[in-house]
């Protein structure tokens, strides 16, 4: 075996950064879409909308019961078929692994975010909704101006912790041979065989980012807890 | 739809047998991984709450490291990197292990120690949720600190955290699928193989999905039984086991 030599990491650094950029882009997209869709799913259940509420429940339970890798495989195979059936000629549309990853993560994370938001909705005192109604607000207005802003504040730390897990989970796009941080590393390893240096480096990069992020979340959590105590 | 699973595969077995063998490895990994994670998690969780500075610091370091590196990367560290940094003989032995064991053991170590870091946080939360009087009373009774943890603190703390441990049980059986990246033919890997050989992707992935859903229900049911059996009786409001990872996310 070659002697361990971390200078190889310096050469690899720009390529690793491009991989990291992809991981971050995927995280940001899945976060945004996941929150929007997740709020919809949570509201469908919370407001007990007929059919939709039940459908949301089944969707969430299923997504949360199967491994993310299997979901990635499912969408890699299913998305072209579904898109094909929507297009006029009905032939499968190839969308490639990158789009698969983005679609899967948005849909998968929505299930996890919606559970967090649903608990936040349940925790909000009923008086808030009753007061809005007595002020003459419509249901959409109630949720838009009164309920959701408060829920957002209480669930923010949990949502952010989930986002750190999401960032770690994006490494699984490796199974679709995409070039995220782990994918970039494994491609370099195939070229130069320096897996000890490269895998240790990638572990340290994740460790640094996720530790810093969880400390920020812990600080935020303490602050929101402090505010709640003052009220 | 599942007819194809009863067809004969290239190696003389039925495709169903491939999936069953995959399910076997998934279950073995989840089962043994869970018990190791539970044991290590209790030790580390207790370590985080003791008054000896160095022990608490080590326990905290353990949790920081194992929780903040993705499972996939940890898998690679155990599989690729560990044999290189071990003494040559041990590394060689690891690399020479016959096929399923060569990836099963690193996968088991990876999932156990990763899950242990999450269990440790739950155990710590459970211990910190107990009233201070419990620890003080053990001291007043003259119990040693080992006795205090073993006889008074842990029995109560563990019963408090059964609902959040449910999430960890669900998480470890889902994380077993990451082992396919180091070549373990567990359920997801076998489903992909069946789909590649037969082009019956719906049947292959559908069967695997049903198996995972059943596992989720069984795990959830078992943990509900455990919760009912060991729940601390009394008027205190009991929390029912929650589905999924929510509790764990809160602690992160």
UniProtKB/TrEMBL annotation, chain A:
Classification via Pfam families: BPD_transp_1
Name the record gives this protein: Amino acid ABC transporter permease
Annotated transmembrane regions: 20-44, 65-83, 198-220
UniProt keyword annotations, A-Z: Cell membrane, Membrane, Transmembrane, Transmembrane helix, Transport
Domain ABC transmembrane type-1: 20-213
Domain of life: Bacteria
Major localization listed first in the record, in broad terms: membrane
Source organism of the structure: Azospirillum endophyticum
Family statement drawn from the similarity comment of this UniProt entry: Belongs to the binding-protein-dependent transport system permease family. HisMQ subfamily.
Places the protein is found: Cell inner membrane; Cell membrane
Automatic annotation (TrEMBL), chain B:
Main location: membrane
Keywords: Cell membrane, Membrane, Transmembrane, Transmembrane helix, Transport
Topology versus the membrane: Multi-pass membrane protein
Keyword Cell cycle: no
Domain ABC transmembrane type-1 as annotated: residue spans: 23-223
Transmembrane segments: 23-46, 58-81, 101-120, 202-223
Subcellular location: Cell inner membrane; Cell membrane
Stored InterPro entries: AA_ABC_transptr_permease_3TM, ArtM/GltK/GlnP/TcyL/YhdX-like, MetI-like, MetI-like_sf
Source taxon at top rank: Bacteria
Record carries keyword Heme: no
NCBIfam families given in the database record: HEQRo_perm_3TM
Annotated family: Belongs to the binding-protein-dependent transport system permease family. HisMQ subfamily.
Protein name as it appears in the record: Amino acid ABC transporter permease
Native organism: Azospirillum endophyticum
């Amino acid at each position: 075996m070659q002697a361990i030599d971390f200078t190889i990491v310096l050469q690899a650094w720009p390529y690793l950064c491009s991989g990291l950029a992809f991981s971050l882009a995927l995280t940001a997209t899945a976060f945004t879409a996941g929150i929007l869709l997740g709020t919809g799913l949570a509201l469908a259940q919370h407001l007990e909308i007929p059919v939709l509420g039940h459908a949301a429940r089944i969707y969430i339970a299923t997504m949360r019961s199967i491994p993310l890798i299997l979901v990635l495989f499912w969408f890699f195979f299913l998305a072209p078929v579904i898109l094909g059936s929507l297009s006029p000629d009905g032939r499968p549309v190839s969308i490639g692994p990158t789009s698969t990853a983005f679609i899967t993560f948005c849909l998968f994370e929505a299930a996890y975010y919606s559970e967090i938001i649903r608990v936040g909705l349940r925790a909000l005192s009923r008086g808030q909704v009753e007061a809005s109604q007595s002020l003459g607000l419509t249901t959409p207005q109630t949720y838009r101006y009164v309920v959701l802003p408060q829920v957002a504040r209480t669930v923010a730390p949990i949502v952010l912790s989930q986002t750190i897990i999401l960032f770690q989970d994006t490494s699984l796009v490796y199974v679709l041979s995409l070039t995220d941080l782990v994918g970039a590393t494994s491609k370099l390893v195939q070229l130069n065989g320096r897996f000890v240096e490269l895998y240790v480096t990638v572990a340290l990069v994740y460790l640094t980012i996720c530790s810093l992020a969880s400390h920020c979340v812990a600080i935020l959590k303490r602050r929101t807890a402090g505010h709640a105590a003052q009220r | 739809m599942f007819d194809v699973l009863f067809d004969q595969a290239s190696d003389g077995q039925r495709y169903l047998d491939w999936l069953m063998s995959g399910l076997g490895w998934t279950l073995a990994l989840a089962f043994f991984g869970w018990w190791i994670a539970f044991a290590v998690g209790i030790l580390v969780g207790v370590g985080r709450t003791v008054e000896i500075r160095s022990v608490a610091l080590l326990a905290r370091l353990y949790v920081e490291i194992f929780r903040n590196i993705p499972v996939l990367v940890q898998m690679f560290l155990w599989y690729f990197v560990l044999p290189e940094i071990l003494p040559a003989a041990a590394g060689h032995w690891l690399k020479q292990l016959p096929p399923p064991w060569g990836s099963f053991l690193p996968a088991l170590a990876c999932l156990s120690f990763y899950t242990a870091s999450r269990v440790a946080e739950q155990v710590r939360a459970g211990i910190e949720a107990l009233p201070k009087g419990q620890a003080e009373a053990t001291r007043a009774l003259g119990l040693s600190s080992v006795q205090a943890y073993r006889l008074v603190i842990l029995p109560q703390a563990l019963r408090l955290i059964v609902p959040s441990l449910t999430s960890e049980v669900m998480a470890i059986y889902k994380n077993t699928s990451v082992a396919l990246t180091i070549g373990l033919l567990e359920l997801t890997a076998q489903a992909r193989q069946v789909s590649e050989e037969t082009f019956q992707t719906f049947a292959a992935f559908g069967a695997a999905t049903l198996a995972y859903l059943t596992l989720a229900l069984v795990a959830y049911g078992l943990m509900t039984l455990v919760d009912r059996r060991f729940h601390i009786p009394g008027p205190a409001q009991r929390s029912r086991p929650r589905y999924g990872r929510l509790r764990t996310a809160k602690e992160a």
